[in-house]
């Protein structure tokens, strides 16, 4: 924040009280406990409080220091609104009697964990499915509550809220994705600055980035003009976890920018160009390394630390850098106190070659093989 104006500086209760007493004639008793002292003390308190309020008003009046609903009001003056939370989506596989029909709206959940006091995460099927001749069928699901908590790994959605006769098991074969919390102040401020400092006009590249960024669930955007020749635009999306956006996010963005894809300008895009919105292509980063552990340390725990550290590094690269550097992954290993030393580090099978990430691609963590 800029420097506080001089008239609001050092406006403490003690300073205000002192200035007030200095204006009282010297022949009047103004010692603590006197009539003058007791009469002016409440005034000094209220004036100091008002000075604090005035500082808060300044903070709420500028985007860089505003927060919450005040930031919402400030950015709304430039047509920017906070993105809402998005529910995670995925698929589940039912097993049971061949030909059994499962309606839409069936409730599912992850098991509750009484030890860690973690409650179930609830989902609901969004389409009807009929089991095939082998007694297997897949149905799309959506988290009941929007937010990142709905993003769960494969194999954990195994509970049916209401058992259905003929169904013996349910599981999600892949992780659920796309769940996003309501946009943070930091993200909203970043988009606001992008809007006012890099004005998008007449369907230029900056404006396509702005439009895509307004869709809930979108975490990063790349725009490729002349994607398939004149009159075409390609847009690649990541979700809030810096992974490839799921189908729901891609469809929502397509419908917002160019729903008809015929150049008629029915969405935010101007008439003329045909816009195609796509999920980024994920490039798995597979790591193998031999490590020397400190005593009393679990190999599984260290593997988790490596996965978390490399994932954080890859998120920093997403749609920003075009290379995954082996030396940076080595630095992740060295930053883990439990690892005394390492050897035979390979990334996608090589030990000294960086991994190139092309336009429209994003590096994501693949397999991590850690051994002693």
Automatic annotation (TrEMBL):
<dbReference type="InterPro" id="IPR052399">
    <property type="entry name" value="Phage_Baseplate_Assmbl_Protein"/>
</dbReference>
<dbReference type="InterPro" id="IPR006949">
    <property type="entry name" value="Barrel_Baseplate_J-like"/>
</dbReference>
<protein>
    <submittedName>
        <fullName>Baseplate J-like protein</fullName>
    </submittedName>
</protein>
<feature type="domain" description="Baseplate J-like C-terminal">
    <location>
        <begin position="285"/>
        <end position="370"/>
    </location>
</feature>
<dbReference type="InterPro" id="IPR058530">
    <property type="entry name" value="Baseplate_J-like_C"/>
</dbReference>
<dbReference type="Pfam" id="PF26078">
    <property type="entry name" value="Baseplate_J_M"/>
</dbReference>
<feature type="domain" description="Baseplate protein J-like barrel">
    <location>
        <begin position="92"/>
        <end position="179"/>
    </location>
</feature>
<comment type="similarity">
    <text>Belongs to the Mu gp47/PBSX XkdT family.</text>
</comment>
<dbReference type="Pfam" id="PF26079">
    <property type="entry name" value="Baseplate_J_C"/>
</dbReference>
<dbReference type="Pfam" id="PF04865">
    <property type="entry name" value="Baseplate_J"/>
</dbReference>
<feature type="domain" description="Baseplate J-like central">
    <location>
        <begin position="201"/>
        <end position="279"/>
    </location>
</feature>
<dbReference type="InterPro" id="IPR058531">
    <property type="entry name" value="Baseplate_J_M"/>
</dbReference>
